[in-house]
Amino acid sequence: GAGVSQTPSNKVTEKGKYVELRCDPISGHTALYWYRQSLGQGPEFLIYFQGTGAADDSGLPNDRFFAVRPEGSVSTLKIQRTERGDSAVYLCASSLTPSRGVGYNEQFFGPGTRLTVL
Amino acid sequence: EDKVVQSPLSLVVHEGDTVTLNCSYEVTNFRSLLWYKQEKKAPTFLFMLTSSGIEKKSGRLSSILDKKELFSILNITATQTGDSAIYLCAVDSNYQLIWGAGTKLIIKP
């Protein structure tokens, strides 16, 4: 079946502009995660959705970052007034249920969106 | 503050060599430790470790966890050029994965 997909695969924008990054999780996966990976670093947690609601947005770096998942499937990460420091690969992952409680539900990752802010 | 530290940051070996990658962690609520292989952009799952001393194996790859000393190792024997990748270690702390910076492994033919 189809895996997690992300669009666009690459996005180049100018400082100060607004961008939207889209994630299509695996069908039936209720949990969705956004991560940001800078060059030479491991992925950094941004936000986690359980269904339509953001269960934890503590990783969002500031109020320029916002994410939605209005129907509990597709999610959009929105970045306002982009800065050069926002340049990174933005990874999305989904899992069957949140990885809490008994057992671990593997997070499946999309290919990411490489954001470059000039 | 929760953290995961991997070493070495990068490693270059010749095909056929055996490598050992290290991952140490300090987290407040440990549930499991995971290893991922990252080529291009998306990490792919390798192993999940929850119990100390039980080796997980998959072909030439194996991994083990020491919950007393708070570390894990990933071994790759008889390395091949296709093993070249970034190997990421992550600790599952409730629903968050706390990631290490990764080890960049380069296998020379």
How many β-strands of chain A, per DSSP? 11
Number of helices of chain B: 0
Order of helices and strands of chain A: EEEEEEEEEEE
Radius of gyration of chain B: 13 Å
**Oligomer status:** heterodimer
- What level of helicity do the residues of chain B show? under 10%
Mean pLDDT of chain A: 89
SS field, number of helical segments of chain A: 0
Question: Using CB atoms under 8 Å apart, which protein chain pair has the greatest interface?
Answer: A-B, 28 and 26 residues
User: Could you give the distance between the termini of chain B?
Assistant: 41 Å
Low-confidence stretches of chain B: none
| Percent of residues in beta strands of chain B | over 45%
Uncertain segments of chain A: none
Can you give the mean pLDDT of chain B? 92
Which class best fits the helix and strand makeup of chain B? mainly beta
- Whole-angstrom Rg of chain A: 14 Å
The ordered H/E elements of chain B are: EEEEEEEEEEE
Shape of chain B: globular
Describe the sheet with the most strands of chain B.
6 strands, mixed
Coarse structural class of chain A:
mainly beta
Helices and strands in order:
The complex is a heterodimer of chains A (118) and B (109).
Chain A lengths: L4 E3 L2 E4 L5 E6 L6 E7 L6 E7 L2 E4 L8 E4 L6 E5 L8 E8 L12 E2 L3 E5 L1
Parallel strand pairs in A: 2-11
Antiparallel strand pairs in A: 1-3, 3-8, 4-5, 4-9, 5-6, 7-8, 9-10, 9-11
Chain B lengths: L2 E5 L2 E5 L4 E8 L5 E7 L4 E7 L6 E3 L2 E6 L4 E6 L8 E9 L2 E4 L3 E6 L1
Parallel strand pairs in B: 2-11
Antiparallel strand pairs in B: 1-3, 3-8, 4-5, 4-9, 6-7, 7-8, 9-10, 9-11
General description of the model:
- The complex is a heterodimer of chains A (118) and B (109).
- With 118 residues, chain A is mainly beta.
- Chain A contains no helices and 11 strands.
- In chain A, strands 2, 4, 5, 6, 9, 10 and 11 form a 7-stranded mixed beta sheet that branches.
- With 109 residues, chain B is an all-beta fold.
- Chain B has no helices and 11 strands.
- In chain B, 34% of the residues are buried.
- The interface between A and B is medium-sized, with 28 and 26 residues.
